[in-house]
Write a structure and sequence with these properties.
Layout: E1 6-7, E2 13-16, E3 19-22, H1 30-53, H2 56-73, H3 99-108
Antiparallel strand pairs: 1-2, 2-3
Helix pairs in contact: 1-2
């Protein structure tokens, strides 16, 4: 992970450019995780290729494959944690309960 990409203390999110992005479900078996990451990367390449060719139908299908892989990884769809906490995916970190934690990190690095 780069300096600008960190995980929240509960390891539910990555912080990227001040926004929260849900992490993969840590309870997935390693083999399932690796297979879904391979599918995700292949689907992303298909999106790139479809965009380059201008084929909207292929792009739509490839984006569906990306969505399916991300859901299988737990990065989209129902949350993988069970404590009832809401999903803050794509939220600006300053608008979430992680704001104070993140500010303290920024202050410590100054």
């Amino acid at each position: 992970m780069t300096k600008e990409t960190i995980k929240t203390p509960d390891e539910r999110y990555l912080v990227i450019k001040g926004r929260l992005w849900r992490c993969s479900d840590p309870s997935l078996p390693e083999s399932v995780y690796q297979e879904q990451v391979k599918r995700l990367m292949a689907a992303r390449r298909k999106v790139r290729d479809a965009k380059a060719s201008g084929d909207e139908g292929q792009e739509r299908e490839a984006r569906q494959q990306v969505d399916h892989a991300k859901r299988a990884l737990g990065e989209r769809g129902p949350v993988w944690w069970s404590d009832g906490e809401p999903d803050y995916t794509q939220c600006k970190i300053e608008n979430t309960p992680y704001a104070e934690w993140y500010r303290s990190l920024q202050e410590a690095s100054e």
